[in-house]
Specification:
The protein is of the alpha+beta class. The protein has a single domain, classed as Gcn5-related N-acetyltransferase (GNAT) (Aminopeptidase, 3-Layer(aba) Sandwich). Helices cover 31% and strands 37% of the residues. The chain has 5 helices and 9 strands; from the N terminus they run βααβββαβαβαβββ. The strands form 2 sheets. Strands 1-2-3-4-5-9-6 form a 7-stranded mixed beta sheet, sandwiched between helices. The protein binds coenzyme A.
Length: 150
């Protein structure tokens, strides 16, 4: 598997990006403001993430996703580690990520990669999404904010 930056004229893998965020509008905004990276096996895109600069020394990992057939094989963890390494090389001091109160596996993944919970953006998913999002039989309501020093 190779993880590389998406070329500027290359089309972003929207099927993968939509797995992480149902909002096309937010995805377009992230792609405009951030850098998109893809994981490929035999030229097939199986993973994606975007690094979004937010403050002078802080970057946010957004829209990380692995193709459904390839989930649970350690690729997500490799993408998070790759994002942390690239952010550190670029000189960022802190990497942040946000996920839903209902995203139990994602909360496990980020904490296994060394992220610590820093706060809660209460009602984020109620404010930003028209339709209710339910995962693990839990409604997505609050965004759990996590961060890691690089
Ligand atoms: N059940 C329980 N925990 C799971 C799991 C499952 N089916 N799949 C992943 N995890 C957790 C485990 O804690 C695992 O750690 P371990 O390997 O030590 O057991 C950790 O996640 C990493 O697993 P990994 O195989 O690297 O994850 P992945 O390749 O499936 O990628 C996502 C993780 C979240 C990127 C992927 O599932 C995905 O694309 N989901 C849909 C999009 C999404 O929700 N993006 C995140 C938005 S915040």
């Amino acid at each position: 598997m190779k993880i590389r930056k998406l070329h500027s004229r290359e089309e972003a893998p929207s099927d993968l990006l939509l797995l992480a965020d149902p909002s096309q509008e937010l995805i377009r905004d992230y792609l405009k403001r951030g850098e998109c990276f893809v994981a490929e096996v035999n030229h097939e895109k199986i993973g994606v993430y975007i690094l979004l600069p937010t403050r002078p020394c802080t970057i946010e990992l957004v829209n990380i996703a692995v193709a459904e057939n390839d989930q649970g094989k350690g690729i997500g963890k490799q993408l998070v580690i790759d994002a942390m390494n690239r952010a550190k090389k670029k000189g960022y001091k802190t990497i942040e990520v946000g996920t839903s109160n209902s995203s139990i596996n994602q909360l496990a993944l980020y904490q296994k990669c060394g992220f610590r919970i820093t706060g809660i953006d209460k009602d984020f998913f109620i404010r930003h999404y028209h339709k209710a999002i339910v995962e693990n039989e839990i409604q997505a309501m609050d965004m759990i904010r996590l961060s890691k020093d690089l």
